[in-house]
Automatic annotation (TrEMBL):
<keyword id="KW-0175">Coiled coil</keyword>
<comment type="subunit">
    <text>Homooligomerizes.</text>
</comment>
<feature type="transmembrane region" description="Helical">
    <location>
        <begin position="6"/>
        <end position="27"/>
    </location>
</feature>
<keyword id="KW-1003">Cell membrane</keyword>
<keyword id="KW-1133">Transmembrane helix</keyword>
<dbReference type="GO" id="GO:0005886">
    <property type="term" value="C:plasma membrane"/>
</dbReference>
<comment type="similarity">
    <text>Belongs to the flotillin-like FloA family.</text>
</comment>
<comment type="function">
    <text>Found in functional membrane microdomains (FMM) that may be equivalent to eukaryotic membrane rafts FMMs are highly dynamic and increase in number as cells age. Flotillins are thought to be important factors in membrane fluidity.</text>
</comment>
<dbReference type="GO" id="GO:0045121">
    <property type="term" value="C:membrane raft"/>
</dbReference>
<dbReference type="Pfam" id="PF12127">
    <property type="entry name" value="FloA"/>
</dbReference>
<dbReference type="InterPro" id="IPR022853">
    <property type="entry name" value="FloA"/>
</dbReference>
<feature type="coiled-coil region">
    <location>
        <begin position="231"/>
        <end position="290"/>
    </location>
</feature>
<keyword id="KW-0812">Transmembrane</keyword>
<feature type="compositionally biased region" description="Polar residues">
    <location>
        <begin position="318"/>
        <end position="327"/>
    </location>
</feature>
<protein>
    <recommendedName>
        <fullName>Flotillin-like protein FloA</fullName>
    </recommendedName>
</protein>
<feature type="region of interest" description="Disordered">
    <location>
        <begin position="314"/>
        <end position="336"/>
    </location>
</feature>
<keyword id="KW-0472">Membrane</keyword>
Length: 336
């Protein structure tokens, strides 16, 4: 059994160790020493206050050391405010240092606004120094002669720091360049003119000022490739001719159907007239019988009428025979 005094001393030592561990966790002493050695004026209370505000002190002190070494005038409270707003303090400070080295005018408030807007401010500064090349997808356009051209362009852009907040992105640049390609090719009389002078597209697109309202400044537009596609004009003419043929065929079918209907109607009319004639001829014997009974027609008159009818049929037969013999003189010559 240990004496009570030794147990008390051991308890005090354990409490001191626990207190030191808790103190070093709450107050990063090593970070404070690094900050003081780098010339950053920060107190132990400030580091403890950052812990209370749920701020990792290293997220503020390390960027503050970089600003001090770079000679930037940045307040620690501003860094804390930007961190609490959800921004990346380290990226903002790196962008300020890069802009200072490249002699690009960039303020701390502007850098924070760009970062909070969701844009990578450090990448924007790098793009201002080293322009970026944006390659557009293949854009299909049709010249006035009906030939399709498929062009692909490379757009060299540089970030415009002053328009990063509220400016349009790369998608707008690609869409506007595609629109310029379609306009240029579509206004060309022939596709050969575009193939001979592909820089015509570049000049036309650059003259339109497509970088207005965007976060970039277009430096150059180079046509990477131009290929000849389909003959759309000929295909449209073929389609139109096929459509005209079908329309004409439908109209002809309609006229044929109307002609057939009229012919059927005429046949029906003739048959109806024949039926009426037959019906009328059937009434003739009845009328003659009635006339004989009533004494309106004599027997001699009836025989005379029959002789006249026989004579008429004979004359018609003779006339038909003579007509047929005149109509075929070749056969008569062969017989002779």
């Amino acid at each position: 059994m240990f004496p009570s005094s030794i147990l008390a001393a051991m308890g005090i030592i354990v409490l001191v160790i626990i207190f030191l561990i808790a103190f070093l966790y709450v107050v990063p002493l090593g970070l404070w020493i690094s900050a003081r050695a780098s010339g950053v004026k920060v107190g132990i209370g400030s580091l403890f206050g950052m812990r209370l505000r749920r701020i990792n002190p290293s997220k503020i002190i390390l960027p503050m050391i970089k600003t001090t070494k770079a000679g930037l005038d940045v307040n620690m409270n501003e860094l804390e405010a930007h961190f609490l707003a959800g921004g990346s303090v380290d990226r903002v400070i790196d962008a300020l240092i890069a802009a200072q080295g490249a002699r690009i005018p960039l303020e701390f408030e502007q850098s924070c606004a760009i970062d909070l807007a969701g844009r990578n401010v450090l990448e924007a500064v790098r793009m201002s120094v080293n322009p970026k090349v944006i390659e557009t997808p293949v854009v299909a356009a049709i010249a006035k002669d009906g030939i399709e051209l498929r062009a692909k362009a490379r757009v060299t852009v540089r970030a415009n720091i002053s328009r990063l907040v509220g400016g349009a992105g790369e998608e707008t640049i690609i869409a506007r360049v595609g629109e310029g390609i379609v306009t240029t090719v579509g206004s060309s009389p022939t596709h050969k003119e575009v193939l001979e002078n592909p820089d015509l597209i570049s000049r036309t697109v650059l003259a339109k000022g497509l970088d207005a309202g965007t976060a970039f400044e277009i430096l150059s537009i180079d046509i990477a490739d131009v290929d000849v596609g389909r003959n759309v004009g000929a295909q449209l003419q073929m389609d139109q001719a096929e459509a005209d043929r079908r329309i004409a065929q439908a109209k002809a079918e309609e006229r044929r159907a109307m002609a057939v209907a009229q012919e059927q109607e005429m046949i029906a009319t003739v048959q109806e007239m024949r039926a009426k004639v037959v019906e009328a001829e059937a009434e003739v014997p009845r009328a003659m019988a009635a006339a004989l009974r009533e004494g309106k027609l004599g027997v001699m008159d009836y025989y005379q009428m029959q002789n006249i009818l026989s004579d008429t049929r004979m004359r018609d037969s003779i006339a038909q025979t003579g007509t047929s013999s005149k109509a075929d003189p070749t056969e008569d010559g062969k017989k002779k």
